[in-house]
Design brief:
The complex is a heterodimer. By secondary structure, chain A is an all-alpha fold. Chain A contains 14 helices and no strands. Chain A has helices spanning 13-44, 52-60, 67-101, 114-128, 136-160, 167-191, 194-205, 213-232, 234-240, 244-249, 254-276, 282-294, 298-322, 331-349. In chain A, helix 3 (67-101) runs parallel beside helix 8 and helix 3 packs across helix 12. Chain A is globular. By secondary structure, chain B is α/β, with parallel strands linked by helices. Chain B has nine helices and 13 strands. Chain B has helices at 42-50, 71-77, 93-102, 109-122, 138-151, 168-185, 196-202, 220-223, 226-233, and strands at residues 3-12, 15-21, 24-26, 31-35, 56-61, 64-65, 78-81, 156-160, 188-192, 205-210, 213-218, 235-240, 248-254. The longest helix of chain B has 18 residues, at 168-185. Chain B is globular and about 55 Å long. Classes of the chains: A mainly alpha, B alpha/beta. At the A-B interface, helix 1, helix 9 and helix 10 of A face helix 2, strand 7, helix 3 and helix 4 of B.
Chain lengths: 356, 260
């Protein structure tokens, strides 16, 4: 009988660093595969349930699938499933980078009121009722949402620069912004026509049901615009977590970096809100899961945050269709129910640890 | 090839922090100690050189006026290590030091890894390489911050109380190593430090500040006198002068309030 050989002790720091990097990459790959599996389950789930194998075959070889199934999978369910992914990625990236630049574990487009501001922007476009050229209505909604999201972001940024403003004050300020814009939204609902009111309710609860290929395309475009900025600033953003003075000592123009990243976060939050309404806490929970799994080196933190956000959205999309049989629950309600306890636990923990 | 400060003034919020700083010089290959009581302006002076604090006057490094350079350009010539090193970012020690190098030097990844490893070894940090910053003690975090500063290989290194949280072993080890590094790399190292004994032992030159002005500058033996310690620090001290060795200073008693 032979005893198991103990694992050789790796004392060399480069080897240990490489082991850590491999572990991080494996985790990212694992979450990516899990997300992919959820997308297929999401597509299979609905009023008519399809076997996963059939869904997979329809996706891989659409010409060989029955026509009805092909239409349902490709024209109805795939855009919804992909929209969940794109919105999850957008919100989680926006949350991750807002937490980084504001040095605030509670920051995300929803908790800081940026999503609410975007909702009001979208609502303004809807109640104005402009939409003659194809896509122009979509662009108007997105444009309005972006402008108000940007205004709210800049306000938060300005407040964060004031002396004596701490993590809790900033979140309270975000809540104040949220109240303000929710009141504005309420006012618009009060004066809106019946048709516009229905759309406004959709925006305030958040839903994937209006997803289409063109909307998925535009939301992806926003990601394509912002992602290179985040990747290019990766090292500098990681340095920001060491503290402003350390980052500045490394030659980083902290003010300019913050503004540029905040602009990108606003665009991501605004496009997400413009297409699926207010979806809360995905931008909060996703980055925290990523931080727990791979740490805050942006080379791994960024992809892991994005994938965590996508996974949460995809799972929530499945839950929204299956929790109450026959009824499609608004996805924003579900993310709020999942995210709220997490948010509270973060508030209680934020005084200690991590953000000293 | 020196660092030379002339006619340096700095005001923060309407209060004059540095006034008429002049005649300060630091040479490559040696450590210069910056000393003075609390509030004398040591950190402000280092920040002013690093471009992190607005100041008027002349800051010449190797004949080049630093004030004409942007923050990014300045960071290629120097690195300022702040006093605060409390980051609890979820980064491993190795990642944090690699980050400092990658934001300064463009080079093949393998070379960067080897350089980081060498720095960690020199600071006895290699066993902690995979530990997260949040899991380190204050002294360990301070050594990581020193490793970040050194791995950037700046021609001018400005260290603001780099040994304040270190135990005696690591104080001596770090200062020994920095002295060696200054000589080997022929770089200028300026260290703000409170311990006059360490300042005398490890520096070839001392800048002494009092209330935002230069009280004295020169070799430790010339600067650290009974009269100056009484005037600047308001202390009585015992000073020994062993042959061919730096002065040994033992503070004895505080004689009156410094008023700052």
């Amino acid at each position: 009988m032979t005893s198991a050989m103990p694992e050789p002790l790796v004392t060399d720091s480069i080897s240990r660093y490489r082991i850590r990097r491999r572990r991080q990459r494996r985790l990212i790959l694992g979450v990516a595969l899990l997300t992919l599996a959820m997308v297929i389950i999401d597509i299979a789930t609905g009023p008519s349930q399809y076997p996963l194998r059939d869904v997979f075959m329809t996706l891989v070889a659409p010409s060989e699938a029955p026509e009805a199934m092909r239409i349902i999978v490709w024209n109805i369910r795939l855009p919804v499933a992909l929209m969940a992914i794109v919105v999850g990625v957008s919100l989680a990236l926006a949350g991750a980078e807002m937490q980084t630049i504001l040095n605030n574990p509670l920051a995300d487009p929803f908790t800081l009121g940026i999503s609410s501001a975007a909702s009001v922007g979208a609502a303004l476009a809807i109640t104005l009722g402009v939409g003659i050229v194809p896509f122009a209505d979509t662009l108007l909604v997105t444009g309005n949402a972006f402008l108000l999201a940007l205004a709210a972001s800049l306000f938060i940024w300005g407040v964060s620069r004031l002396r004596g403003v701490n993590v809790q004050t900033l979140v309270l300020m975000g809540i104040a912004i949220m109240f303000f814009f929710n009141a504005m939204l309420g006012l618009m609902q009060y004066v809106a026509s019946a048709e516009a009111l229905q759309q406004l309710v959709f925006w305030s609860l958040g839903s994937l049901s209006k997803a289409s290929w063109s909307k998925v395309g535009l939301a992806t475009l926003a990601l394509c615009v912002t992602l290179p900025v985040f990747i290019h600033a990766g090292w500098r953003l990681t340095a920001l977590r060491l503290g402003d003075l350390h980052a500045q000592a490394m030659g980083i123009d902290v003010g300019r970096l913050r503004l540029r990243i905040l602009l990108c976060c606003s665009l991501l939050a605004a496009t997400a809100v413009a297409f699926v309404g207010t979806i809360g806490f995905v931008g909060l929970v996703g980055p925290h899961i990523a931080r727990l799994l791979v740490g805050e080196d942006q080379r791994v933190f960024l992809p892991m945050s994005a994938l965590s956000g996508a996974l949460i959205m995809s799972v929530t999309s499945i839950l929204s269709k299956t929790l109450v049989p026959g009824i499609l629950l608004p996805i924003g309600l579900l993310t709020a129910l999942i995210g709220l306890p997490f948010f509270v636990s973060l508030i209680l923990r934020s005084r200690k640890e991590m953000w000293g | 090839m020196t660092l030379r400060l002339e006619r340096l003034d700095c005001r923060v919020g309407g209060i004059s922090i540095l006034e008429g700083i002049a005649g300060l010089e630091a040479q490559p290959g040696e450590v210069t100690a910056l000393i003075g009581p609390n509030g004398a302006g040591k950190s402000t002076l280092l920040k002013a050189v690093a471009g992190l604090q607005r100041a008027n006057g002349s800051l010449m490094l190797h004949g080049q006026e630093l004030a004409s350079l942007s923050l990014e350009q300045r960071a290629r010539h120097l690195y300022y290590l702040p006093q605060e090193f409390g980051s609890r970012a979820v980064l491993s020690v190795f990642e944090a030091v690699l980050l400092a190098r990658r934001t300064r030097i463009h080079e093949p990844h393998e070379r960067a890894l080897r350089k980081v490893q060498a720095t960690l070894k020199a600071l006895e940090l290699e066993p902690l390489a995979e530990r997260d910053l949040s899991q380190l003690s204050g002294g360990q975090r301070q050594r990581v911050a020193i490793a970040q500063a050194v791995t950037r290989e700046p021609p001018l290194l400005l260290l603001d109380e780099p040994t304040s949280a270190l135990d005696l072993h690591h104080q001596l080890q770090v200062l020994d190593w920095l002295t060696l590094l200054a000589a080997e790399r022929h770089i200028i190292v300026v260290i703000a430090i409170h311990d006059l004994g360490l300042a005398a032992r490890f520096s070839r030159r001392i800048w002494m500040l009092k209330a935002g002005r230069v009280a004295a500058s020169g070799a430790p033996g010339d600067v650290l006198t009974h009269a100056r310690l009484r005037d600047v620090y308001a202390i009585e001290a015992h000073i020994e002068w062993p042959d061919d060795e730096p002065p040994r200073i033992t503070p004895l008693t505080a004689i009156h309030s410094l008023g700052r």
